[in-house]
Amino acid sequence: MKITPEMLSSENPIPQEVEFKDAFIERYKELLGDDFDEFLKYSLTYARKAIRVNTLKISVADLKKKLENDFELTPVPWCKEGFWIKYKHGDRFDIGNLPEHQLGYFYVQDPASMIPAVVLDPQPGDLVLDMCAAPGSKTTQMAAMMQNEGVIIANDVAAARLKPLGLNLQRCGIANTIVTLRSNTRLQPVFDRVLVDAPCSATGTIRKSLKCLQMWSPGTVKKICGEQRGILRQAWQALKPGGTMVYSTCTHEPEENEGMVSWFLEKHPDARVEKIDLDIQRSAVITDFQGQDYDQGVHGALRIYPQNNDSEGFFVAKLSKSECQLQKVP
After folding, report:
1. How far is CA 5 from the centre of its chain?
2. Which among 6, 29, 106, 276 counts the fewest CB atoms within 10 Å?
3. pTM (2 decimals)?
4. Helices 159-171 and 137-145: crossing angle, nearest 10°?
5. Cα separations (Å) of 64 from 86, 106, 227?
6. Is 324 tagged catalytic?
7. Which among 126, 187, 114 is positioned nearest to 155, based on CA atoms?
8. pLDDT by residue (tens digit) across 110-126?
């Protein structure tokens, strides 16, 4: 199926013909029902630019004052440091070229990407593990929330991804973070909070990168699910009893989202899904898909599509670990 800009009733469509695989169209019509056309419209429309103020270097009020002559800032309801940003004097999208960005006063970040750290809510003095940290948007956000106190272990499995992570940490003045390169390593259960912003099929980011459409296939989703299970096992081992873990993806695939949480709850009786209470437009979670019923605990998770808040699509689940050591289900 091919979609052209003329077929979309949007103000700022991606100016090229986009081809969708038939299997993708069939799957997402089943997933979205009557909302499928709106999903296509927003997925093929350029996203509004957004920034997050880095309060380690500047206050929200002071950055707004610096930018107010040239930029209109609209608050992101679920993140007090987040703002949609629009140039007042015409079209300008190179926000990353502003001196304030180079100085680390703000981070260019989609509003949906701000959600996981807000939900995890790390506090000054916490010991936090960021399992899949690069390029550092959520790591730098958590460090600011922690006021550079406590410790963040920012991990990734690919050495090439550590370079942008390190540069962003340096630019933003992060002083409480240790960067590690580890995979398939058992960690001791000492962390107060763990963030798993997992690698995924990324169908919530079509408006940012059409590449995910080329890479998508049911087989790819199945392979990624295997990787996600491995990461979640390690993350849960590292979380201390009474701690909190956030699992997030930028995909809409039920197997990677509600299905993954459902599998996790079955394997870990010491886990409980906590309700996410944010000022945000959301869609109903998926409780069953293609003959597979999911655990009722998934009702506490957050699922958003691009059309819900004119952002990327995202899925976020907050899990707490019991103080008691319960036996795992084999």
Report:
1. 27
2. 6
3. 0.94
4. 40
5. 12, 11, 41
6. no
7. 187
8. 999 999 999 999 999 99
